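REQUEST ID: PR-0412
SUBMITTED BY: lab tech R.K.
PRIORITY: routine
TASK: structure prediction, single protein chain
INPUT:
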Amino acid sequence: MTFHQSRAWVEAWAQGTGVNLSIVTLEQNGTAFAILPLETVRMHGLTIARFAGTSFSNENTGLIDIAAQSRLDPVAARDLGAALSEAGLGADLVLFDKMPPEAAARAPFSALPRTFHQNPSFQLPLFTDFNAVLAQINSKRRRKKFRVSERRLEAMGGYRHITGGTDAEALRLLDTFLEQKPVRLAAQGLPNVFADPGVRAFLRKLATTRDATGKAGLELHAIELVDTTLQPQIIAVAGLTIKGKHITCQFGSINEDIAADASAGELLFFRMIEHYARAGYDVFDFGVGDQLYKRSWCPQRTELVDCYVPLNFKGRLAAPSITGTIRLKRAIKTSPVLHRIVARLRSFTVRKPQHATHND
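STATUS: complete
OUTPUT:
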């Protein structure tokens, strides 16, 4: 599974947002081979079951027993649809979105109709030799940018890379992110997807859910500007989730009023990637969404897949419209001209935050 189907993620999402949650177990010949944590939502007059918290996830797989999966008889789309109908989801359609291609190619998803997701995801392979990591992405240029950022921050009193090692510190960094991000989103003509109280409760729960080793479900990192004449200021924040040796960046923000020319966000990524590479992790995943900074860091790109299962006549009627919408969004996002037009139109409808606070 990915972290987005872990118990920590699903429980935090259900408790924070209060969604209608179902845990579906798939069995064949008396052997369970998959568990699917699904939420049920109403969208445009349609009831859709989908992976829990998928609006904030980066990749979904379900929880799959690979050994049992390898022994499965072929699973037809109609058989999976019938089984999900019997599960009592009360949905017209089940959407398994943002699946890695290798996961979508295996049962029970392999026979399902599908389309490419509207956004790809981007990955940077890690090695314990940090020089080898940077060699993938123009090492000379990356180190030069890092040195420029450091010099500019040192001239302002210096900086430190901090993490949310305690619940109190994690919540301090998370609250700073929730203050900084709306300003950037509004400037880009985008709605504040973190404004909903349930989403904020979800993030706070995840940031304070720790495993037996003390690692939080959501790890917070930040760049803090240190100046002996001023109170320390947090100028960049990032939130990460970790599954095995796979790091995924969930979000990031910067304070654009302080040290705007120091590229604090880039500096934070450099420090985080350096830390996790030397600690023996395999991948730093920048997540879903095609943005220039991700392309600059990542030599690998993954085209994700959306699979779907209509459960009734209404779902079968709606399926072409849903996949058509996904393809339209993909066409817009992959066309610079269309993307600029849509962003321009959207900027007229998004309200800018009032009295936004930038500082810690």
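NOTES: Residues 313-334 form the longest helix (22 residues).
REVIEWED BY: pending
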